[in-house]
Every structure is written in C-alpha cells, then in structure tokens.
Amino acid sequence: MTEAISGPRPGRRRVLQGAAVLAGAQLSAPFLLSARGEVPIKIGMTDELTGAASMLGTSEVQGATLAVEQINAKGGVLGRPLQLLTEDSANDTGTGVQKAIKLIDRDKVSVLLSDPNSGIAYAQTQVTNPKGVLNIIPGAHTDPMTGTACKWNVFRICGTTSMDAASITGTLVKRFGKRWFMITPDYAYGHTLQAAFIRDVKKLGGTVEAVVLPQTTLDFTATLIKAKLYKPTVLVNNMYGQPQVDCMKQFLQFGLEKSIALGGAIFELEDVVSTPAAAQTGWWNMEWWWNQPGVPHVEAFNAAIEKKYHVMPSARVWFGYVAVHSFRLAAEHSKGLDALKMARALEGMELPPDVALQPGKVFYRKEDHQLMANIFVGEVHPPKTNKFDVFTPRKLVRGATVAGSAADNGCHMTYPS
After folding, report:
1. Please, are residues 71 and 324 in contact by the beta-carbon 8 Å criterion?
2. Which has the higher per-residue pLDDT, 9 or 385?
3. Shortest CA distance to 45 belongs to which of 151, 128, 126?
4. Mean pLDDT over the full length of the chain
5. Cα–Cα nearest to 2, from 175, 160, 168
6. Would you kindly state where each structural domain of the chain is located, as residue ranges?
7. pLDDT of residue 417
8. Which of 174, 357, 363, 399 suits 181 as a labelling partner, its CA being 20 to 30 A distant?
9. What is the pTM for the complete model shown?
10. What's residue 37's pLDDT?
C-alpha cells in the first residue's frame, strides 16, 4: 500500500555539527538517581561512535538519550529512573561483542540496544539469546535477524534490506530504466541488500552488474570507470556513511551524472547533509522523515531534538527514541523486567502515536518481532527552506506490504521451555 505525501516546509533551523554533537550525545546520558534514591533500571547501548558511520551512531544515542530524559521526567519506569549506558563498538565486531558482554555481565543492564552495523548486531544476538536478555535492534538491517536467525528475545525497529529494496525498486525502474550498476559494501547488510535488489529488478525484466567493495572503501575510481563502461541507466549506491558520501562526490567528479541517474535503498539524512549540493540527488528511501505536516506529536518531537542538539531528527534519531520507549512499554505491560515476559508483551504491540510519530498502525509483528513501520520513498535534492530540507517524500510504503510473511522469510520462533 502506498500513499502520496505532500505538505509545506517549516522555516529556519540551526545546526551544530562534528565533535560538539558527539560530545553532547555522550555527556547528556542521565546517571542520577531520583530524589528518593531508587536504584536505576539500566539500559545498555552499543553504537559506532567513532569510524565511518559515527554520525549514524551518534544520532541513535541522541534519540535514546531524549527518550530516557523524558521518561524520567514523568517518573521513570515501574517507579524507578532509567540509566542509559553507552559503549563505542568502533565498527569492530569483536569490540562490539565484548562491549555487549560487559554491559550484560558487569553493568547488569535489563536490555541491550544493539549496534547499527549488521554484522556486529547479529553477533550480539548470539550473546543476548543464551543469556536471556531482551535485545532491541534500532538500526541494523540485514534480513536474517528477523528471518532465518530470529530469536524470542530479539526485536528490530528499522526495516529489513528486503523491505527497503522492495519499496524503491519499482520507482527506480519506472523513472530510470532496467539496466543497473550496483556498488555494495562487503558485509552482512550489503550482501542481503544486493541480493534483494537483484531479485526484485530481475522480476521486472532488468539486468544488474554488481561490484562488492570493502565497507571502508574511500577511492571508487576503478569502480566508477567500470560503471561508465557498462553504460547503466541508474547507479545504485549501497554504501553507507562516509564511503557513500565519497562515492557520490567522485561520481560527480567523473561527470557521470550527465548520463547515469543515482538511487538506492537508503541515503541517511546525516549523509545527505554532508554531501555537496550537486550530489544531493536521486531517488531513495527514508525510514522516517521529520517533516510530516499534520501528523500528531511529530512537531513536538522535532522541537525537542532541535532544542537539545540543534539538528533536525533523522531516522536514526527516531530509531533510538523508539528503542527506549519499546523497552518502557514492554516493562510496563509485563509489570516487571523479566525478559521473556517483556518479549511476550511486545509481540503484536502497536506503538502509541507519540512514539510511532507517523500515520497508520506501527506495530511489532508477533511472528518475527519485526517492526512494521512506514518507508518514505522520494527524491533527494539540495536544501530548500533549511539545511535539513533535502528530501521530498512522494509516497508512503506500508512496511507490512513489502515485508513478506515471517514463514516465507524463514523465521520459526522458539521459546525457552
């Protein structure tokens, strides 16, 4: 199901970038007990706070931090304050796993919010499941975590790579044609996204030439020369973080925009605003968008993030915000912190409007624990009314319409006896 989107843009927005934003995200995490001295409920969170995708990790922490502060201001959860403990995975799987173990075994967190890197997040599920700890994944997309490798304790907020590919493939074919060249990062996210795109475009009669590169690639010269020789109608850029930005810049330097269109699954807001205006182009997905005129609670959320961080919220900010609120809802509905009972409480749960922050029903599918949210499909462009006004949504794709069934995705949920 798709819905057209339109609406006016708001006015001036301020921005604070770089180290100041990262420092604010790290220093603002609350560590204070309430006035009556209750022992806090600890939330563990690992994120890539240094490395190629540090902007994305920082944004997730920002959203989680705001949620914790707002919840504590209203009395906390089960009469106790929340305490957010953040750890930097540094985009390294071994580090991410060790940080998860520290948070669980030493810090005694009641929930782990996993890393945005799909490889790290997947490895962390291998830790949380045998330890019986609730595990919420804000922004790691690779399919198996709510597919063939689904687990009773694991819930995911962002869409799967298959959902993202299915949402945009038809638009890219319709607007630009069926001859594709694809650049993909060599890790779990890239592999499943590329496979989904190839499957979907071939169903529409298209052809794809794909190149897989290390996820830290910064020089795309040889790959872009190969793309030019292939003469595609569209280049699909599956990289993320700084490599995606560098690929876009070099695409322009070679003058390829004169003959090849750009597009892909996700072009994060953090990356778009870091890209030269000429490279702010193409058709992409946003997994949440800040400018939704008339949608309840969105304006208040935007204002709270802008006041605290001097940026407009991205999908990553929303992921972190939803993750903390999902834990709150699970604890409140189960009336405790037992992981199995919290998981049962989240199954099938619809997010309230002030957490969903988008139209329609947004819910965790019972069969695989995948959040069924909207995917915003539209056009990236240079800023209009403010620095963050770089995307115009053209339609909403309901997550449930592109998710496939849990059984078809290979999820067969099992629970502790």
Report:
1. yes
2. 385
3. 128
4. 92
5. 168
6. 2-158+290-373, 162-286
7. 80
8. 399
9. 0.91
10. 64
Distance CA 34, CA 79 (A): 10
Q: Which long-range contacts (CB under 8 A, 24 or more apart) does 270-274 make?
A: 270/55, 270/56, 270/59, 270/314, 270/316, 271/55, 271/240, 271/241, 271/242, 271/244, 271/245, 272/380, 272/390, 272/391, 273/15, 273/387, 273/388, 273/390, 274/55, 274/242, 274/245
> Considering only CA atoms, which of 238, 251, 244, 180 is closest in space to residue 209?
180
Longest dimension (CA), the chain: 69
For 240-389, strand residue ranges (E) read 261-266, 283-286, 363-364, 371-372, 374-380
d(CA 21, CA 310): 8
- Tens of pLDDT, residue by residue over 231-246, are 999 999 999 888 999 9
**Residue written as token pair 């329609």:** 360
Domain 2-158+290-373 top-level CATH class: alpha beta
pLDDT at residue 321 above 90? yes
State yes or no: pLDDT of 124 exceeds 70. Answer: yes
Q: Give the pLDDT mean for 254-262.
A: 95
Distances (CA, A) of 17 to 20, 155, 212, 273: 6, 31, 31, 10
- Closest Cα partner for 370 from 327, 345, 405, 335? 405
Nearest partner of 314 among 281, 279, 282, 284, judged by Cα: 284
Nearest one of 250, 276, 244, 277 to 263, comparing CA atoms: 244
Within this chain, domains 2-158+290-373 and 162-286 share the same CATH topology: yes
Q: Both tokens of residue 152?
A: 């009773």
pLDDT tens across 65-109, in order?
Answer: 999 999 999 999 999 999 999 999 999 999 999 999 999 999 999
pLDDT (tens digit, 9 = 90+) per residue, 348-376? 999 999 999 999 999 999 999 999 999 99
| Tokens found for residue 406 | 């849990």
Strands (E), 150-279: 154-156, 179-185, 207-213, 234-237, 261-266
CATH 3.40.50.2300 fits 162-286, yes or no: yes
198: left (phi over 0), alpha (psi -120 to 50) or beta: alpha
- At residue 248, what is the residue type? M
Structure-token pair, residue 35? 């006035």
Map tokens 């109608």 to a residue. Answer: 233
**The amino acid at 407:** A
Q: How many CB atoms lie under 10 A from the CB of residue 63?
A: 28
* CB contact set of 41 (below 8 Å; sequence gap of 6+): 76, 77, 78, 80, 81, 82, 83, 110, 331, 337
